[in-house]
Structure formats: structure tokens, C-alpha cells
Specification:
The structure holds 2 protein chains of 2 kinds. Chain A contains 3 helices and 5 strands. Chain A is α+β, with helices and mostly antiparallel strands. The chains are: A alpha+beta, B alpha/beta. The interface between A and B is medium-sized, with 27 and 24 residues.
Chain lengths: ~140, ~120
């Protein structure tokens, strides 16, 4: 059985996928991480990853129409902190996009893709799966 | 971890003889980044006699990619005027974000504002 099936979900929130809900959703994940015993510096990084993932969903998942985002927090089978971000928008694996060139000269620098690059680097594990009609992105942070 | 004023972000500018010094405090996220970007643009336009911008991040505890975009935009504007952006006094997590993004390859980063001013 995959680890996703065994994620122990402790709390869940569902909101319309819009920017005005960003702060509330980030605060929700932050509270979960603190409750899990994650230190404040890593909570800051989890907050940053959460923002980047959510903004990506707000901007691209529903392509002009409306939809919700669900956020679930808990622990994986190892007891590590886990948060899942689910939308029912177009199938989209944000991890499959090209890595930005972080060595390019300034004139060539583009900001696109940088948010997800930060997520990859700041979290211990990041995975994507498509399940039924949902995109589910999971971040894991070692306890 | 917000500011004592209750605001999410505070911006201020001081003029030195050779540079503008912008201090940003609190949090630059997707919500506050537009204001930050607009502020930097305005300062660059209003101080057209200067082409060096020091950004003091001593009291900035959070910056996301939206904030990086604002810094990148300001840097491009000043490079066009043969100037530059210099970052000073970064907290550890903020420094790590800039390094992961690779911004340290084209931006100078100094431990103190004084050392940034001295090298201009």
C-alpha cells in the first residue's frame, strides 16, 4: 500500500481557490505544523511552500472558472508532517514543469517556475498524483 | 510574528549621498508584493539622480517568489541605468530563499548596511 493511503489526516479545510483565502489557508497549515512539533524556522518554510503551491492552484487550476481547494494536514506512516493540496481543475503536475535556470544572467532571468523550485528545495519530499478528477500535491517534512 | 504596528509590511526610504536605502520590514508575500514592487519603482523614478539601491532586509522575516519578482524588476531597471541593487542584513531563512533562487549570482549581499554603503 502506498504511503498516501496511510497518511493520517488530522485536520482539513476547504475554500474557494481564490487569493483572498491565501492567508487563512497558510495560517491553517502553519497551525497544523506547530501542533505537530515542527520548529518555527521550518514552519516558516512550510508556510512559504504552502503559499507557492496555493498561488499556483489559484492561477492555473480552474482556467477562468471557479473551484475549491482542499488542504489536509497530518502525518505520514513514518510520523513525518504531511500536508496535501487538492484541486479538481485541469490535470496538472506542477512538479513536471522545467526547473528554472537559477544560474542565468539577469537579462535572461524569468520568475516563472521559481515558486515550485522553492517548494522542491525547502521541503523534504514533494509528490504529485492524479486521483479520480483531482490533482493532489503532497509536501512532507521530517519530524 | 507580525509587526508591532499590526501591519504585514512596512516600507521606508532614506537617502544617502550615493544611494537610496529602502528598508522593508515584516512579510513580502503574494498579497503585499504588488505594493512592494510599486514602492521600489516609485523610489527609482523619484530619485532619478541615483542608480544604486540598497535594500535593508534586517527586519524582513519572509519573502516568497512574488517578492523576488519585485527585487528582480528593480534590479533590471537600475542595471539599465548602469546601477545596481545591493541587499543587506538578511535573516537566515530569507538569505536561503535568495540563494535557492540563485539571486546571489547577480546581486551583491552584505552583512551590514554600512559595509554595503562603503563599497559603492
Amino acid at each position: 500500500m502506498s504511503r498516501y493511503k496511510t497518511m493520517r489526516i488530522l485536520s482539513e479545510i476547504r475554500r474557494p481557490a481564490r487569493i483572498e483565502h491565501l492567508r487563512e489557508l497558510v495560517a491553517f497549515v502553519d497551525k497544523c505544523a506547530k501542533t505537530h512539533g515542527i520548529d518555527s524556522e521550518r514552519c516558516l518554510k512550510i508556510g512559504l511552500a504552502t503559499e507557492e503551491i496555493l498561488v499556483n492552484i489559484f492561477d492555473y487550476a480552474y482556467q477562468g472558472s471557479e473551484g475549491d481547494v482542499r488542504v489536509r494536514c497530518g502525518a505520514d506512516q513514518r510520523g513525518w508532517f504531511a500536508a496535501e493540496f487538492e484541486d479538481t481543475g485541469i490535470p496538472f503536475d506542477m512538479l513536471a514543469s522545467d526547473e528554472p535556470d537559477t544560474t542565468a544572467d539577469i537579462s535572461e532571468r524569468r520568475i516563472g517556475g521559481l515558486g515550485i523550485h522553492l517548494v522542491r528545495k525547502l521541503m523534504d519530499e514533494v509528490t504529485y498524483r492524479r486521483e479520480r478528477d483531482a490533482n493532489i500535491l503532497t509536501i512532507i517534512v521530517r519530524s | 510574528m507580525g509587526l508591532s504596528t499590526g501591519k504585514e509590511m512596512e516600507l521606508s526610504t532614506r537617502n544617502e549621498s550615493d544611494a537610496m536605502v529602502v528598508s522593508v520590514k515584516g512579510k513580502v508575500d503574494t498579497v503585499t508584493a504588488a505594493e512592494f514592487e510599486k514602492y521600489l519603482t516609485t523610489q527609482i523614478e523619484q530619485h532619478s539622480d541615483k542608480n544604486m539601491l540598497i535594500v535593508n532586509l534586517k527586519e524582513l522575516y519572509y519573502i516568497s517568489s512574488a517578492g523576488l519578482r519585485a527585487i528582480l524588476g528593480a534590479t533590471k531597471k537600475l542595471k539599465e541605468k548602469h546601477g545596481d541593487v545591493i541587499l543587506a542584513e538578511l535573516q537566515d531563512t530569507v538569505r536561503e530563499v535568495f540563494e535557492i533562487a540563485g539571486f546571489h549570482s547577480f546581486l551583491k549581499i552584505f552583512e551590514t548596511e554600512q559595509s554595503a554603503l562603503e563599497q559603492i
